[in-house]
Specification:
single chain; 3-stranded antiparallel beta sheet; Immunoglobulin-like; 5 helices
């Protein structure tokens, strides 16, 4: 199981709201701090109020700006209407918490995951389980990059992820095309092949494909190329 913390304001507000509605039923089960849970619940009204008011205030800001522009610079035959209506705040504002509620929420989510009684079903009810499907192995394209390492040899890099490694194929520009030169089990691969003669440069190209359960799987990476020089 993997924890999920929303990455946009509205989604984070919805997630915290879902969590606050359901969490009181699991405080004892998960052995959570009652004071931490109570504090987050007390923060929720201000979060929901702020997220609701923010677009309203932006809309009002645009309306007032348009009114100001028309008032100062509009054509003489244009008629000003009533001043834009301003949002009305409640008579009693919600509790104002400390800053960075997201960090506090994330810490409380980790407390849930640390509990030996935490289950996937509880996580789903609390809205803190990442249910996004993993990418299918056959659909992934390696993100290959390359640079010259010390000594002038090419150093390749790609993210392994769920894969055992990747096959490395190279075209030295000698008319033979791409030839498999290695299988790397690490994210980095140093091509320690013999370099060109001193003061001679060659154009080498590389591409890789991931290995999953011992079999080349997915898409070929985009080709990367570099100029390799003969050095002493």
């Amino acid at each position: 199981m993997k924890a999920k913390i929303a990455t946009t304001d509205l989604m984070l507000g919805n997630q915290i709201n879902t969590f606050c509605i359901a969490i009181e039923d699991y405080v004892s089960t998960l052995g959570l701090s009652a004071s931490k849970v109570a504090y987050l619940i007390s923060c929720n009204p201000m979060i929901q109020f702020t997220l609701k008011m923010h677009p309203e205030l932006l809309k009002t800001s645009h309306s007032v700006t348009s009114y100001k522009d028309l008032l100062l610079y509009g054509h003489k035959n244009e008629v000003l209407g009533a001043f834009p209506s301003l949002p009305v705040y409640p008579a009693t504002m919600p509790f104002i918490p400390l800053a960075n509620v997201r960090s506090f929420f994330a810490d409380l989510v980790q407390d849930c995951f640390k509990s030996p009684k935490f289950t996937e079903n509880i996580g789903i009810l609390l809205g803190i389980i990442d249910l996004s499907p993993l990418p299918k192995p056959e659909e992934v394209t390696p993100n290959l990059s390359a640079k010259l390492a010390t000594g002038g040899h090419p150093l390749l890099h790609t993210t392994k992820g769920i894969y055992q490694g990747y096959e490395v194929w190279r075209d030295k520009g000698d008319g033979k095309g791409f030839i498999k030169i290695a299988t790397s089990l690490y994210a980095d691969y140093l091509d320690a092949s013999e370099l060109p003669p001193l003061n001679v440069s060659q154009h080498w190209k590389y591409k890789v494909i991931n290995i999953y359960k011992g079999v080349p799987t997915g898409n070929w990476s985009a080709e990367v190329s570099m100029i390799v020089f003969g050095v002493i």
